[in-house]
Structure formats: C-alpha cells, structure tokens
C-alpha cells in the first residue's frame, strides 16, 4: 500500500522557520522523483515549489528559491522541506509527491500558517 504522510506543519510568525517531513512507503522510493507542492488559500491548483530527482539534483520555484531546501533520505524513505524566512504569502497546504514511470502519488498535506 502506497503511503505519503506529511508532518511538521503549524503556525509560525513571519521570518520564522519550519521543517516539513514526508514519510513514504509502498513504492520504489530510491528511483522516484520527489516534490513538494502547495495549495494557496482560495486556489484550486497546486504549485510545484521544489523537486529532488533520484540523482539528488534539485530545482525550486522562484517564489521559494533561496529560502526553502528540499532533501531526501533514501535509507529512511523520507523527504524533507526546510522552510526559512517564511512570510504570510507562504501560508498554504503543503503536500509531498512521488513520481516515476506510470505513477504519481500524493500525500494528504499539512497546513502551514504564517502570521505577521
């Protein structure tokens, strides 16, 4: 059974930091590309904000570049998102995704709220 379970969300003041974690199971984690997406309040679509490939290479959306860092631990089947210098515009539901040939899995998401 495929599972992606996010944790680490919560409320933080502007300028603060949070570290999101995503525990994965049930698929070929080491071969998968992993990503974090977020759904902003009032939006129906999710924004791809960070991706880490099975090679370890990463890319970021301009909106988070220089502030967020994605990482993975293949031994633990975990993917992380370190979020620094948070602003109220980062308030969203954050979800982790795993994808590869013929599959695209998504977790339920975790709420991040940033106040002034």
3D structure, described in words:
It contains no helices and eleven strands. The radius of gyration is 13 Å and the shape is globular. It has 116 residues and is an all-beta fold. It has strands spanning 3-7, 10-13, 18-25, 33-39, 47-52, 58-60, 68-73, 78-83, 92-100, 103-106, 110-115. Strands 2, 4, 5, 6, 9, 10 and 11 form a seven-stranded mixed sheet that branches.
Number of strands: 11
> What is the makeup of the main sheet?
7 strands, mixed
Distance between the termini: 40 Å
Q: Give the helix proportion (percent range).
A: under 10%
Rounded average pLDDT: 97
Structural class: mainly beta
Question: Strands, helices and their partners?
Answer:
Blueprint: E1 3-7, E2 10-13, E3 18-25, E4 33-39, E5 47-52, E6 58-60, E7 68-73, E8 78-83, E9 92-100, E10 103-106, E11 110-115
Parallel strand pairs: 2-11
Antiparallel strand pairs: 1-3, 3-8, 4-5, 4-9, 5-6, 7-8, 9-10, 9-11
Brief synopsis:
With 116 residues, the chain is an all-beta fold.
Task: Please give a handful of descriptors for the protein shown.
single chain, 116 residues, mainly beta, seven-stranded mixed beta sheet, four-stranded antiparallel beta sheet, 0% helix, globular
């Amino acid at each position: 059974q495929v599972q992606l379970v996010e944790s680490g969300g919560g409320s933080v003041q502007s300028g603060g930091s949070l570290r999101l974690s995503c525990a994965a199971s049930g698929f070929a984690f080491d071969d998968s590309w992993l990503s974090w997406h977020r759904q902003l309040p009032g939006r129906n679509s999710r924004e791809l904000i960070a991706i880490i490939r099975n090679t370890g290479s990463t890319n970021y959306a301009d909106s988070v570049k220089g502030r967020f860092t994605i990482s993975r631990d293949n031994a633990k089947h975990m993917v992380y998102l370190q979020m620094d210098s948070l602003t109220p515009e980062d308030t969203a539901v954050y979800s982790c995704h795993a994808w590869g040939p013929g599959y695209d899995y998504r977790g339920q998401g975790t709420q991040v709220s940033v106040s002034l």
